[in-house]
Amino acid sequence: MEGFSSYYAAVSKVIEMYNTNPSKADEIMSEQFSLYFHKKPFHGVCQFIFLTLLRNKFLIECSIGKIAKKKPRKKVESLIEAAFAEIIISEDEKIPKVIHGWVEFAKTYLSKPEANFVNAVLRKAKFALNETIKTGSLSQIYSFPQWLIDRWTDQFGGETTLQILKLSNKPSEVFFRKAEGFSDSTFSKYSQFFTPSKFDNFYILKSGNWNKVKELLSEPDFYIQDPSTTFAIDVLNPKPGKTYLDLCASPGGKSRYIADKIRSWAKKENSLDILKNDKETLLVSVDVEKRLRLLKQNISKIDFLPARVLACDLLNENLSQKLSEQNLPTKFDAVFIDAPCSNTGVLRRRPDARYRITPDDIKNCSKKQLFLLREYCKYVKDGGMLVYSTCSIDNEENQQVAQDFLEENHTFEPIFSKTFLPEDENDGCGVFVFVKK
Ligand SMILES: C[S@@+](CC[C@H](N)C(=O)[O-])C[C@H]1O[C@@H](n2cnc3c(N)ncnc32)[C@H](O)[C@@H]1O
Prior knowledge:
Rossmann fold; 2 domains; binds S-adenosylmethionine
């Protein structure tokens, strides 16, 4: 992939790779953009065009279909799609220049007849896009599979579904969470690069400032995190003197938030200096072996309370045995299960996921989620809490799983139950809290 002299070549190639193997958008992004392009001046623009294409794939395909009777070969199709994506993000008066750039590139990249074809299609691009937006179905306009739109319409109604479609196509903001330990004087040096959000201690990175703030990532009290990831923990409000088991914990966003909440309480109670060696307080974070490196890195930043990390495949291994081998308790005051899910609440962060997920995936996720609840509710002490959360907004993975669990488990009572839909400043998620009688 090295050696491209223009973003046209780079982005055409990336889109061609995606079109050839659509299940690999994440890998294409991280491999091609991070490894090869990171020093190239067109890295940002390539990424922007690729993400725009992913958010508008059906709109673009349908609009191209209005102009071209026959589908061209992948190389030509990918170049045209890239150009359409750039047209979508360009102001009207700049579009002729954008088209000119792509046509000139096509002359060097494709055969002469193909370049002529590109020219003919792009000249009608804006008209075709407008036509699709005017007369197309929601699936074509917002580039979401029809089955998912139908499913959301059944679950949330038409108006809310439209809102979810619009929000899921909004480029996602980067949120930083500033914990209490981060000094105000240090933050004041960076505050110009952020806008405060409506959530306490969450800041939105102003676009184009990534390089100016990236050193904050090594700070123990500054963390990239969407506000929705803290909703479940806010319901529980963790405190010193209690034990917490965080399951499915990697990369560790929730573990760090649990620890920060405990630290805030300890500060209020003037017990911060004894927290580190407190025998009553404990946080154990668990995930599969292959996700442990990142989790360990994050947990190592929690140096103010006893925190441990454990590798366990929660679907196939014996957690109780692993805890005992490490002299850790097998009953906790609270157990968090941040279950793997379909990610339907975070689609704006993963614009290609909508094309991959199927109704069967949602069903399979819900089976695993119920298994996790059934199995790991056993680690909650009497009177303790069980917190179940997902990044999904789907009823089958949220309310339905909680309901099925409660029908089987009469020792648990629900005290909080909500699906948060995506909003301007937060992703969607499910949060369910149960207390053990
Ligand atoms: C939604 S993510 C967790 C995010 C994390 N709680 C945080 O706040 O940073 C779901 C996690 O489930 C983990 N997971 C999936 N299958 C698992 C299994 N069989 N055993 C343990 N963890 C699993 C994944 O590795 C992933 O880290």
